[in-house]
Structure formats: C-alpha cells, structure tokens
Amino acid sequence: xxxxFHKDARQAVVTAQExxxxxxxxxxxxxxxxxxxxxxQEGTAGEALREHGLRAGDLRERVRRVAWADHTADPIDRQxxxxxxxxxxAVRRSVEASFGExxxxxxxxxxxxxxxxxxxxxxxxxxxxxxxxxxxxHIESGHVLLGVLRATGDDNLALQVLTDAQxxxxxxxxTATRLxxxxxA
Length: 185
Description:
Blueprint: H1 7-22, H2 30-38, H3 44-51, H4 56-69, H5 78-83, H6 88-99, H7 118-133, H8 141-150, H9 157-164, H10 169-184
Helix pairs in contact: 1-2, 1-8, 2-4, 2-8, 2-9, 3-8, 3-10, 4-9, 7-8, 8-10
C-alpha cells in the first residue's frame, strides 16, 4: 500500500514512528500519525491542521496527556498501584516538577520497527479509500488526515486530542478535502 503514498504521506508515517519512539511508546497509533501530519510543512494535512489553529508543540503536549491517561499506551498497571495507595498521576507530576517534562519517558524508548495499532492501520486503509473517493491516484498527507478523522471508536486517541483542542472535526474534514481538490487541479 505504501507504494501509492506521495512523499509527504510517507514522511508523515516516518515522523509518526519517530514521535512514538520519542514518547516511549511501543506502537504507532493515530495520535502519532496526527503528530506526523502536523509536522507536514508542504502537504495538505499540515496546512489543514494549521488552518484550524493547531501547532506542533501544543499538539504534542496534548498527545502526551492523552497517551499518559490511556492505560493501554502505558505498561504500568494503574489499578494495581492504586490498590496499594499509589496515585500514578501524582507520581508523574512530582517527578516532572523535579526533573522536567518527559522525565519518565526517556528510559522507555523503543528500538527497531514499531507496529501500527489496529486503529492506525484502519486509518491508513481509510486514507486509500479517501483518495479513491476523490478520484486521486496517490495518497497524500491530506488523505491520511481524512483516514484518521474517519476511523471511529473510543480507541482513536487522535480524535480525543482534536476534540480536547476544540477542533471542529467536520470543518477540518472539509478543509482537508478542499485542499486536496485544489492540489489536484
């Protein structure tokens, strides 16, 4: 499937893997794809996200908060620690107050190829469908953004991050579609 990806879409996926590693995550999820897309300086996804007021630094911080709160992205058993009186969020705040933001992630970097989460795979599949629906032969970063926006479910953390940032998801879809159509013209 990646042979149909335009260079901006490929770069977004590469950047997503780098972002996942930097956050100490062992899989590439929709939030990592979103971070890869916001860093797209020349493609339609980055332009659409910036048009809706999103910036890479703010988005990265929102991703860190959502991923930390999502126990599936964290190998630490929160409930087991809570049962013995340890509040993991309080520990994190204390460590970061003493040692700086991201202090807990530094030792959790993953090496080698990172697999995609099922939701990220679905997003990439939906990006192909978005390209086909727009009668375009290649998948651009804007199509990947549309795929991320179309992948529904509680485990699509990218939608949670965008909602938390008060982004109009329908408006973002419209902007990405408009940019893809004007790019193809």
